[in-house]
Structures are given as structure tokens and as C-alpha cells.
Amino acid sequence: MSNKLSHSFYKSNNILQSAKNLLGKVLCTKINNQFTSGKIIEVEAYLGSNDRASHSYNNKKTQRTAPMFASGGISYVYLCYGIHHLFNVVVGEKNNPCAILIRGLEPVDGVNIMLKRRNLNNLKNELTNGPGKLTQALGITTQINKKSLLGNKIWIEDYNLHVIKKDILSSSRIGVDYAGDDAKLPYRFYINNNKWVSK
DNA sequence: CCAGGGATGGACT
DNA sequence: GTCCATCCCTGGT
Q: N or C: which end of chain A has fewer CB within 10 A?
């Protein structure tokens, strides 16, 4: 049986709800035949054309942002600071360019593979407690940009891990000072008291 | 073609 | 906790 999140999950236009729903789900990759996964602990929602913090603000469609304009259910991976690959889940209907950035993961499968990719010797929070760290750990690069999340390279599973509603906290998003008033919006969601939340 | 930017990380105290 | 190097790629020309 498969617990893979299906098409319908990604088509919703209620992006904030979708972002919260991703908490507790398990992000999986199979890169170079190596399976790794982690439970989603922290996310940020980017609400598209009206959100100044979003790459797709003002319907700015370029080669880079094109994946956001596609129908939900694909990856949006881009390079940040020339070094870090950041992974987003594209959600919403076609031409509603929204995405959810994954910022923190609790390692589940393939910890040894992740440690190796991160050049670490033992399990500690810096393995996956940041958007650039977790992509490195899961082997996510722009090579898997614009890929279906229903395929066999990258996907998300629902293991029915219960996240208590009151344990979901929100805050403003990180590193979006350029967004004016929109920088203050409480579109970052994370699980309370969890060591895998970014610093 | 190239100037400028960027949803950060890690080294250090 | 604080500070700052990062460097590839994008997009406008």
C-alpha cells in the first residue's frame, strides 16, 4: 500500500491550510538509488502574486519561477546565495503561483546516507534543521526542480502521524525583509518544542 | 555579457 | 549569541 499524498492534496488553493497540513508528513527522496526521508517540522507559505515575499509576486514569471505557475504537485528547487538549494512544494491550481518552503525535518530513514552527505559523524540537529541543510541531507538539488511529487524520485507520505493543533505555532517568515509589510505576515508554521526547527 | 542579488550556514567568541 | 563570507545563476541589456 502507498501512503503517498495524492493529486488532490496539492490542488487546494487554501495555501495556509496546506502548509499546516504538511507538518508531520514525511518527505522522501530516492536519489542515485539511495532512499532517505524526514518528517516535516517547519514550513513557510508563499502566497503568490499578491505576496511581496514570493518570487512570483506581481505574477513575475521567469524561467526560474515558472514551476510556481504550474499546477500543484511538483517541486520548486532554486539556488540561494549561490550555494544552498532550497526545496518548495508547489501547491494550488495552475497560474496560482504558490509554494511552501520546507525549513526543518526530523530524520526518519537513511540517516547514515544523510550524515555522509552533510559530512557529519553523528546525529545532531544541524543535520536537517534548516532549509539548505535538509536539501543537502536528502540529496535535493536543482536537478530535481520541476519534478512531479507523485513520481519515484521525490514524494511525500502521510503516515498518519498526529500533530496536535495547539503544538502548531506560527511566526513571521525568515529572511524576507525585502517584502515590506508582508514580511510581518505569520506564514511560518512549526511544531512547538521540536529540536529540528531551524535557528 | 555581466552586475547584482539572494526563502542561509557555519565559524567563532 | 553574534557576525559575515557566500558564488552561482538569473534576467535585463
A: N
Show which positions of strand C are touched by protein (CB under 7 A): 5-12
For residue A177, the model assigns a pLDDT of 87
Domain holding A28: CATH number? 3.10.300.10
Range of the structural domain that residue A143 is part of: 7-191
Successive 10-residue mean pLDDT values, chain A, 199 residues: 91 97 97 96 94 93 93 95 94 95 96 94 93 96 95 96 94 91 93 94
For residue A140, tell me if it sits in a domain: yes
Q: Which residues touch strand C (CB under 7 A)?
A: A 62-65, 78-79, 81-83, 142
Reported for A160-163, long-range contacts at CB under 8 A and 24+ positions apart, including other chains, are: A160/A3, A161/A24, A161/A25, A161/A26, A161/A39, A162/A24, A163/A23, A163/A24, A163/A191
Please name the nucleotide lying closest to A86, CA to C1': B7
CA of A83 to C1' of C7 (A): 7
SS3 A183: helix
pLDDT score of A178: 87
CA of A33 to C1' of B2 (A): 39
In a domain, A63, yes or no: yes
The reply to whether A198 falls in a domain is no
**What 3-state class would DSSP assign to A3?**
coil
Residue nearest to nucleotide C12 (CA to C1'): A62
Supply the pLDDT for residue A162: 86
Count of domains forming chain A: 1
Residue A2, in any domain of the structure? no
